[in-house]
Amino acid sequence: MRDLVNRYVAAWNAGDGRAFGAAYAPEATHVTFDGALLRGRDEIAGVHSQLFDTFLRGSRIELQVEELRLVTDEVAVLHTSGGILEAGDAARVA
Asked: What percent of the chain stands above pLDDT 90?
């Protein structure tokens, strides 16, 4: 799971929507910062590709894993904290 979080962060920080989407299951849902509901890996990747090319260009995300709880061998609950930094922002998220 931590490797998955690292790939998610690396994809965001590289501005790579396709790699960002690959961090999700094919049938995943994702709620964006503005409340939009994205359904499926392809939609998540496509929307983020557009965002990384425009509004989120040069941004980066910093996340810390706060809790990881296995529900079953195939299901986990992952709680992270952090935030998105705009391009050129040197401050770290606490």
From this structure: 69
